């Protein structure tokens, strides 16, 4: 997969002529979860794994299309949980998050060239809900959620930022590619980071609170 070919860039740049008020979404779940020892994307909250919750809340917020980027090891399970979602494989997840985002953007281009704004949600940062995404979508520039002075995920990338991502090296940290303006949105679980077994234990300890929070904003 060549993420830097001229046709790819031209295709995305030409999306202005097909402008749409909607926003696509990309869920990043290609990490190898070496510290955790098992796939972060499949950690369950209630009856469903994080990968399902992410797509569920993005859909509730009105994002379409949605692309989920995974590694080869969890492809079958991701497809089983998300039969109606475009799941793609990042063949080189070790290069980092920007490379996974590039894989997702290319898949979005192929599915819907008119998407000019994209919500990006990494699977290991699950402390958000549909209301947070809806709040981000009110803005025309690239923004990130913020709560009590802490910035986090998900983030919204506008058209110019998408081109910057496609032009970057896949190993370049996203913060070095795009500047996000913080938007204060109610997200008391923003600091959640699923990286170790201790993090999963904490997630289970607040599972009831998190399920209640996930259900908020579903009337959008």
Layout: helices, strands, pairs:
Elements: H1 6-13, E1 24-29, E2 44-45, E3 48-49, H2 50-60, E4 66-70, H3 75-81, E5 86-89, H4 97-111, E6 118-122, H5 130-136, E7 143-147, E8 150-157, H6 159-167, E9 181-184, H7 197-205, H8 207-215
Parallel strand pairs: 1-4, 1-6, 4-5, 7-9
Antiparallel strand pairs: 2-3, 6-8, 7-8
Written account of the structure:
The chain is α/β, with parallel strands linked by helices and 220 residues long. Helix content is 34%, strand content 19%. The chain is built from 8 helices and 9 strands. The protein has helices at residues 6-13, 50-60, 75-81, 97-111, 130-136, 159-167, 197-205, 207-215; strands at 24-29, 44-45, 48-49, 66-70, 86-89, 118-122, 143-147, 150-157, 181-184. Strands 5-4-1-6-8-7-9 form a 7-stranded mixed beta sheet, with helices on both faces. The chain has a two-stranded antiparallel ribbon with strand order 2-3. The longest helix is centred in the middle third of the chain and has 15 residues, at 97-111. The termini are far apart.
